[in-house]
Write a structure and sequence with these properties.
By secondary structure, this protein is α/β, with parallel strands linked by helices. It has helices at residues 33-39, 41-48, 65-75, 89-101, 105-114, 129-132, 134-144, 147-159, 162-166, 178-199, 218-229, 233-240, 258-274, 281-287, and strands at residues 10-12, 19-22, 28-31, 59-60, 119-121, 124-126, 174-175, 205-207, 210-212, 291-292. It starts with 9 loop residues before the first strand and ends with a strand. Residues 1-6 and 281-293 have low confidence and may be disordered.
Length: 293
Amino acid sequence: MTDEVVESRDVYFPGIQDFQLHSADDYTFHLSRQVLIHASGFFADMFAMGASNPGSQPVTTAERHTILNPVLCLAYAGHGVSTPSISSFTTLTTLYRVAEKYEMHAVLQSLLSILFHTRTVDGHCVIPFVKTHPIPSLALLMLNGNRLGIQAAMQECILADNKVAASETDAIGVQIDVQMVCYIHSQRQDRIQFIMTRIETWPGCRVNGSVADCLRGPWHMAVRKVVENNPTLVALSKHLYEKQACPSCGQDVTSPCQYNINSLFGELQNLEDLAIPLPSVCDLLTVHNVSIY
């Protein structure tokens, strides 16, 4: 006898446990064949061929238990099993590959829905993946998502902070067709141009009898930099409400333009509430070349 506590490597799921799945790191999952038949085309075909009858040896998989367990939890979502917490986008894409391998279509849809949900990780609320990884999220949605999900993700791509877009690399396992990237860029540039053309019509001031434009020069360039980095209402409002003096006349730059600012904010709010029109999404779906590897 020893006082050492041996960790159990048996994981039991609800229902009749008439099938065993063995992970690559020696964990055994005790599962219901009936649940797997409904959740997985792979296992449905395997059972239909008479493989792995009750009482036979467990089927061994190439995946470790840390990957199999959350996938199976999602497969058992309608059987009282809690949705697993997914802490990173890399983990989500790994689970997505496994769900694809085992033809778990409901699990794939659950993973896609997680892209839009605020998550709780280690007791803290975390913003959705579609905001932290907008372009890879769009790539996944283009594989199996619906039109509304694709449009919502594309909206996030267009309005994403440049730092967010720059941090996304192929290392997370998702790549997207260059045509889609170009389309996102063009839509983003249209939004930037929309904002800047309105700002450029705002009134200037008069110095020594001549018109001097307060909105040109350092202030104007600073606004353009803000807009190019993040063409959203939140980013722009933070900058515009900072009181700054015109270098020519010394007056506050923003106060004389308050009406114009309010009008622009109203237009931006409507655009962000209704989403940027994406008339060519259907066309893009017919020519996309997105893959997950």
